[in-house]
């Protein structure tokens, strides 16, 4: 459940603050860990009576309230990266003590620390050793002086450039790299007064583990009815982070009387702009791609796919268009069209074909070919009960071994995976095209895969997680396995480093004298902003017939199509890339008698090893 | 959520059966996978049209209904262990086909297979290779002929013995041993008509992964009001399995009109006799024992312990009794009793002492000693705010290093772990007794640990699970680690092979000239019934003062005491033990300067390696 948090400093009474927050529509509070600042002069013989006065007593709230209702803010006075060794050491000690106290209060709760500048290396070192729960890292969305400087005329070009380099994303980036992408760390973005916030900057943050945004109450303006609202430009920013499921924190002082107005406004804004959908639980979850050629799909999987509201309608339209092109109105009474459905599953494509025939009044004979014996049971019942008056014929066969009584006018198949060819549609259709008349039609007739480089901290950590879990199960696996595998993922928390470009193309039927389905292509993507390259996203577009296409490429995505999530090909190590550099991706599709696999690597801005060499970590079985 | 399942054979219409079940108070159905028996003569060219008539179509129910509302029963005609190789091979093929079909219908659902005799080795082999979801293994509670034979006078003693050996638990045991304790397998116990069911037999099944019991409708008798009820003896059996959270299946034929009466009766019976409590989620879950000496406890843990409704009342009573014994009524005005609370946490024992003083009108001075700096903050606030008029003094110290202004009359501590001495109360109290006057009192004054051998399939599999997970995280760990560790567990699904016997005793203060807290003891437990020894359960009893005791030993358990769960010391391999054998357990408490640990092994009925030798897998740090 997303939360709305009230952040307030200088409250001696936390339970009253919680009460006030609740009354005003906030379900969480953020408050300083120490009611008063503990002096930086660290006292060695410690924790004496006087000490307790600086903080809240743990009995003030229940353990449950500490855990689920409060974000504890660490003091801003500490400076673990001070050049003064006394200040640095005292800061380290106080930080340790405060984190120990915060974790005493919270059993896996939330601690917030604020980054105030680029240099935080020693802080990262100290804090990573300590935290057991979640560490929220507060970073300004912009470096305000730098952002403002762009508009100042009194600065030299160099001075502006220098200020621009103080990118707050780099504050975070250096901090979390030092902490080795620790998955307990999450970003809290602080909105600050900048005239024109750039959405490009905001989009980059979506590739990070974004927990929340902090909206200072002075960012609100009054509308004509005198209600507080956010300026238009900030509404765009908020919309963007809400799509990434960020929570909202409002920072106010204790005298602010508009709390309820803020929460009403934000609650309403969130209800309108949040991205709620039925597939939410799949977001950023790694799934092993299906191998329907090797494994038989089950009832549950068939049911999910059959529910796609768009796919089978597109197929029906494609078959109808092909029928009309092949059989003129005058030929309708005499001309029979033979349609073969290759890999019929539980029959949705057969229905599409029968509907298309009925709508166009064309006469058809349907050969249904399916290799899964469990699906054959269902098809067999359908043939008997639903299609007993139709000219349909069921064959329990692998399409590659099928010898038909006659050749087909139209082959219909849905062997496409998230990456187009990754469920071996080229291999299957090449082999099946002997079933097709020389002037016959394949639906689909063309498929193209697309890729682009992306940044996603979440996916980087998800792959690390899978990697160590799988290492547990199978000690034979090298540590590389699973860090080099292609996954199916509903991409959400990502930053697109470049726009997807077309990769491999396959045409059906393939009339080449010698058919070669291996491929190799090199693509260049210019880097628009400093970021971390974690992997490659993959998509496909497929032409069913004529101009009827289905696509999961973000630029051309078919509206309502839900059957396919994108692919994700990780790099084993995250790679820092700089604005202006070129990412040069090499991608191979490799084919042997028994298996098909992909390999990928970079040669710019630096050279990586070739991932999944020889298909060692993942491949698709041909048999 | 526990379910009530209606089992019926010979239903052509499953959706109507689900509807009928729901109307009559059953939320799940069990029905044969095949609507008609598929002939055992296996047809090689398979899965043809005719074939589909034998089973249900997958479109009959939604994927969700197949998964959550149905238990699919495999055919009883298959005989994978037939001596006729043709029957055996055909059975294997049909079993594979049927499981493939069942798993096509159910995405991780429930398949039921019935064991009909002792010999099921080949069945176990075939089935373990196939199942992906849960396999329910139906076994009669008794072997009915064997059970009845005990009462027959025409059989020779030998014949009776032979029949008795046909123990249905052994049918299951051999089956699951062949399947290597596969955690996807669960037991479904079939009640059958036996005059006097033995609760001992039933209790042994509680150590197994018990999913459900099947009550055939003919087991019901009519009470005076003509309502169906279970006979008294069977009520006892049902009560016993309900305590272990077994689900209930009622087996009837299609003409039975009393369905609603059965479900009402059973629902009501379950509501009365189920074991629902707030700690349910902890049952059979392995927890790493706390090491409060090494780790500081957090706010959440303190809060849990402080909530114990019994513990601090017992301490208060013990302190009161000691005060009265030490200070006669006439001495009240003059005599001050010095109480030291060692390891005060957030002060519950201080409250017990102050209450005891107030109730007995004795004058006390309290020294509070605590080493956790976070708890000191709370204590410090309490001293200031709650106890400012009392004679209390706070010291932020490890009790082993504390130099008091004066010696104590009474030392109060709660350093007891689930096994008594496993949080190092002996070491701490021995060291602290220099704080005590020579005639002073320690509360507690004596602790004794208890052990007994147990069978628990669930815990055996839980340890295997932890073991492979931890191997993932820490590649340095040997594969033994975690299979040799002591755990804290709320024991539930266990069979007590013998009654707990006393193991180690510690007395405080310990006036021995040379104190030695290492121990070694050998205990013998006769085996009452064939079973599998998986580990050793551990408990403690502690005398606070005089006759005031707290105990988690099942035989003497203090009513309402919830602060401690038992210990569990696993054996790395499960060991089959036979009625009449003696289990001889050797148990050591070992002490070095830096750590304390336990070792354990068997020398009868066979010899195991010494577990946790040298504390290699688990130990308690002294500092």
Structure notes:
2 copies of one chain form a homodimer. Helix content of chain A is 29%, strand content 26%. The first copy, chain A, is α/β, with parallel strands linked by helices and 623 residues long. Chain A has an 8-stranded parallel barrel with strand order 1-2-3-4-5-6-7-10, surrounded by 6 helices. The model of chain A is unreliable at 40-50 (pLDDT under 50).
Helix/strand layout:
The structure is a homodimer of 623-residue chains.
Chain A: E1 4-8, H1 14-23, E2 28-32, H2 63-69, E3 70-73, H3 85-105, E4 110-114, H4 121-130, E5 134-140, H5 144-149, H6 157-164, H7 168-178, E6 185-190, H8 199-206, E7 210-216, E8 221-222, E9 228-229, H9 232-243, E10 247-252, H10 259-273, H11 299-306, H12 311-326, E11 336-342, H13 348-360, E12 363-370, H14 373-385, E13 392-396, E14 408-413, H15 425-432, E15 436-443, E16 446-455, H16 457-473, E17 487-488, E18 495-496, E19 501-507, E20 519-526, E21 531-545, E22 548-551, E23 567-577, E24 582-591, E25 595-604, E26 620-621
Parallel strand pairs in A: 1-2, 1-10, 2-3, 3-4, 4-5, 5-6, 6-7, 7-10, 11-12, 11-14, 12-13, 14-15
Antiparallel strand pairs in A: 8-9, 16-18, 16-19, 16-21, 17-23, 20-24, 21-22, 21-23, 24-25, 25-26
Which features would summarize this protein structure in a list?
homodimer, eight-stranded parallel β-barrel, alpha/beta, 623 residues
Indicate the proportion of strand residues of chain A. Answer: 25-35%
Mean pLDDT of chain A: 89
In whole angstroms, the N-to-C terminal distance of chain A is 45 Å
Largest interface, chains and sizes = A-B, 49 and 49 residues
- Strand tally of chain A: 26
